[in-house]
Amino acid sequence: MKVTVKSWTGVATWRWIANDDNCGICRMPFDSCCPDCKLPGDDCPLVWGACSHCFHIHCIVKWLHSQPQQQCPMCRQDWKFNNK
Amino acid sequence: MSKKEDLEVYWNKINYAFPILNGTLYSDCTNEEYEEIQEMIVSLGIQIRIRDLILIHIEKYLRQHVVPSFWSKFIKSDVEVKGFQLFKTAVSDLYESVTNFSGILHKLTLLNNSCSDNMPIFGEKDVLLGFKQLLRATLLAQLPLEFQYIIYFFYKVSFNVFDNEYENSDMGDDVMCSGCWNDYSDCNCAYIVKVFHDTNRKLMELQLLERLAGQVLTNFIQMRIESHIQKLCTGTFDVSHIAFLENWLDTTVMSWLTRIYCAGSSKPPPDDKNVQNAISKFKQKLSYYLYHSYTKLRIDQLFNIIIEYPDSQPAVDDIKLCLDKTDLRPTLCKNLQTALETRLLHPGVNTSEILTAYVSTIRTLRHLDPSGVILETVTKPVRNYLRNREDTVRSVVSSLTEDGAGSELAEELAKFAGEGDDENDKEDLWDEWNPDPVDADPKVNSGDRKASDIISMLVNVYGSKELFVNEYRTLLADRLLAQSVINTEKEIRYLELLKLRFGESQLHFCEVMLKDVSDSKRINALIHQDNNFEASNDKITCNGMILSAQFWPPFKDESLELPVIIKQLLENYTKSFEALKGNRTLSWIPHLGNVNIEIEIGVKKLELTVSPFNATLIMHFQDKPEWSLDELHQVMKVPVTILRRKITYWQSMGLITEKSTDYFVLVDGSDANKSNVSTNQVQEMICEDEEAESVMASAHDQREGELQVFWSYIVGMLTNLDSLPLDRIHQMLKMFASQAPGTECSLQELRQFLDTKVRTHQLVLQGGMYKLPKT
Description:
The complex is a heterodimer of chains A (84) and B (775). In chain A, 12% of the residues lie in helices and 25% in strands. Chain A has 84 residues and is an alpha+beta fold. Chain A has one domain (18-84): 2-Layer Sandwich (Herpes Virus-1). In chain A, strands 2-3 form a two-stranded antiparallel sheet. Among the domains of chain B are: 1-207; 520-692, Ribosomal Protein S5, domain 2, CATH 3.30.230.130; 699-771, Orthogonal Bundle (Arc Repressor Mutant, subunit A). The A-B interface holds A 1-18, 29, 31-32, 38-42, 46, 48 and B 481, 484, 508, 511-512, 515, 519, 539-552, 566, 569-570, 573-574, 577, 581, 583-590, 592-601, 607, 612, 615, 618-619, 621-622, 625, 655, 666, 668.
């Protein structure tokens, strides 16, 4: 007997490679989206700061807009986007 | 002449004029003679006394002679024709003896006129009327127990003749006359009709018809009506019968009745108010009875009518019409409820069938009673029952979204989308307002009752939208994962329809799920363009279905170790994905998906689409033709029980046999064809089984997951307080842990949850107290 696999459709779930599960600002899981968004993933991506903390991009942008100083809400270091 | 002799002469003369005083009716007294005698009586001034004396004697005569001879003919008999004759003789004899009184009555009238006291005679002013009254009173005072028998026979025989006259003309070949059951040669229908009218006329004249025959007549006609309805209306619901029945009552029954009352003529005499009144009263009574029995019959059939709705709409219209005329509403509710309970609400009926019947019931009763009160009362047990069935929600949701058979709900959903809000129309209808029926529950707003449509009635079985939406999500997930080619457009259409009803936010998750599916297609295309990935595998097309885990219902937790090449394949895919989407990775769910494989056995080629599990299994057999269950368990990391269950798929395909217990061998070559044929049926059965199984965690498991929230609270409690009874735990949970939505927890549920914990040795139950086990 010879078995040939012609095509294999597998099921997978995607997740962000991050050092935490939840966004520190909105407390939603990273794999979900921020409260303002409807669709996760491409439409509501994560960003990493130089301090290695990460957030939903919409969350951190909103945070930075509302603050006089540009600081990471977790560690109070100056916020810089880390384009890794 | 002495005074005594005078008296004797007077008395003889009086006796001569009124022989009734001696107990006979016949006298030779002429009118002139009587006038003389009356003058004498008046001159003596004893006219009142004499009159009263004569009345007493008449009464005595009636009591002792006329009435007993009348009743003596009422003998219980089994032969209809004999009863007919007896009654006829009785009536004509009575009539004759009453006629014999006419002489005396005439004289008495004259005598009474000479009395100036204006005393009523037996309650009547007139002597004749008084006499009739007396006769009736005396007759009825001696009423025998079984007098109705022969009266019944009498009317039965004659009604038969009438029925025959009206209804059948095509029975010509029959030897028997169906009217009188005699040969045609000596059919005596005509005689019967004559006697019948004659008797009725006499009874009418004596004013005895109603009292003697009324009851029998009513019973008899009611029976006829009932049997007629029964004959006419069994089994068919697609024709309205009520007009036809009314017509039948008007023509056949009423003309017969009129003939009884009017001695043979089919029209009531225009001047006789009494007869007209009697007939119209009778007619009212009979039409009520007609409606009543018709409605009753229909109510008994209502369950079937409901099942056949809307084909049975004429029958429903009939009931609607009749309900207004009768007082059968409560009967209807009760009977229908019982019918539903006995025929629908038991374990032998599929949930989908119950739902179909429920929807039908809603539609029918909506039509029957627009206020919705009957509906509410009747369907209460159905709702309660459905609430207890586990697969109700699933059935509702699947019938909401499927085409073809049982798609009534799908239509309903689409209809809802078509309807705009008609708030404005309602304002114009204020003058058509009707109060609620008396049996309505005053606590419920009548607007609510009317407004709720079929789908919301179904949703309301559970009282919450969330359960429905969750179930829909599970169902959608199953469908999306099961199909290799997904008709996304159709799903999106349904989703939009559902959104209209349940609101955007509730179905947000489903939207993401559908987007995942279409995104996966794009990602697949992109990854296939990736040269690195394509280079690493040339033979196998690898597709991925990439899901946003947060938005999908939890998957069943199953382990499966895939073959090495497949694992390699998937890893490559993951790498490509990581390259495509920065900072994101994939975790595979090995047991989900589907695999297209081609199996070559000898000359035969099989092309199959199977689950990853089955593919893995057969691939192992390719490497090594003989496996014990234990070895498979070690290679595939799947529990033995599941292995044993699932390997039947390949057994049924005839590719693998169980050589000895838990030891499986590959079947090769020519044997395969043989066994393949014989086990075709098994295969079908098992494949179906496979399909029916959901890959999602069941609602029960999901609920269990929700309850886990409480576990930390419970552990905390028991650590501090050592041991607690069930209701204390429940109370404390209520106090501390029930703020979050969806975490209400009944005592029952908590007990079940704690029991599972006891079973897994995370808790100890001792004398009704829960404790943490000592470590």
